[in-house]
Amino acid sequence: MQVNIPGHLFAQLPFYDVAESDDAVVVDLHHRSDLVNTRGAMQGGLIATLIDVAAGRLAFKFCDPRAGAGTADMSIHFLAPVTEGPARATATLVRAGKRLIVVDVDVHDVGRGRLAARATLSFAVMEARVAKESASGAA
Q: What's the whole-model pTM score?
């Protein structure tokens, strides 16, 4: 699955696929001057977005692609600033059930070789939407 979708907000952010397997997804967010705070560290909200993107991509593998899954809960522990980058999110599956998918994500500042954040996310598995017949379609 492609991280940068043409025309989408994420296409403006430097997300890059690194690796993908059946039970893990690794995504980088490159460090740029327009993505940092006044201390030179990557904005925490962008780290949270990176975490959600990597975890969501993994969760999507374990649900009906016509239905998807939505983030139900996210707990993040920010441990160190990302000052060199890239920020690398490694999402690993904890559990995939019928109604809930749980994913752990570790974020490293690759340039510093340091763990920057650790998160756990829960995704609600959605039901596939059924196309509704138009009012003029059925007699």
A: 0.85
Residue at token pair 């949270």: 48
The token duo for 64 is: 């009906």
Locate tokens 């379609």: which residue? 137
Confidence at residue 103, expressed as pLDDT on a 0 to 100 scale: 98
Average pLDDT value for the chain = 88
- What is the CB neighbour count within 10 angstroms for residue 132? 7
120, 102 contact by CB (below 8 A) = yes
Cis amide leading into 14 (omega within 30)? no
Cis check for the bond before 6: say yes or no (omega within 30 of 0): no
Instruction: Classify burial at 57, counting beta carbons within 10 Å of its beta carbon; exposed 0-12, middle 13-18, buried 19 or more.
Output: buried
The dihedral of CA 30, 34, 36, 40: what is its sign?
Answer: positive
Among candidate residues 126, 96, 110, the one with its CA nearest the CA of residue 42: 110
